[in-house]
Amino acid sequence: xxxxxxxxxxxxxxxxxxxxxxxxxxxxxxxxxxxxxxxxxxxxxxxxxxxxxxxxxxxxxxxxxxxxxxxxxxxxxxxxxxxxxxxxxxxxxxxxxxxxxxxxxxxxxxxxxxxxxxxxxxxxxxxxxxxxxxxxxxxxxxx
Length: 143
Description:
The chain is an alpha/beta fold. The protein has helices at 10-21, 40-50, 86-92, 94-98, and strands spanning 3-7, 29-33, 65-68, 75-79, 103-107, 121-127, 136-142. Helices cover 24% and strands 27% of the residues. It has a seven-stranded mixed beta sheet with strand order 1-7-6-2-5-4-3, covered by helices on one side.
């Protein structure tokens, strides 16, 4: 089992993302998994801030990938929720991105789990309503 964090707000979730990004190295892949509304985008925004990116980060649901170059490392932010098939990943250069010098952060990564490289950092975000509406359990482990 990897590290486990507890979040009690969207700000907590973003702060956890920021903390994890501070340790990020070139070529690393971070895979976000969680149901709709669990805070993947809040985590992503914090992650970007942890890399020194100041512009707002939104989920690239319709474009599949957004590239941010202003931080200490480039950030390649993917959202594969609306992916029709694997060929779309080829079209956007997915494999070149994940082999690049930046950091790849992939929302809905469970949909492409078989394509993730060894060493991917899996980040699972889950609600637990027994601990409150805004509570999230964030578990981090390496593939």
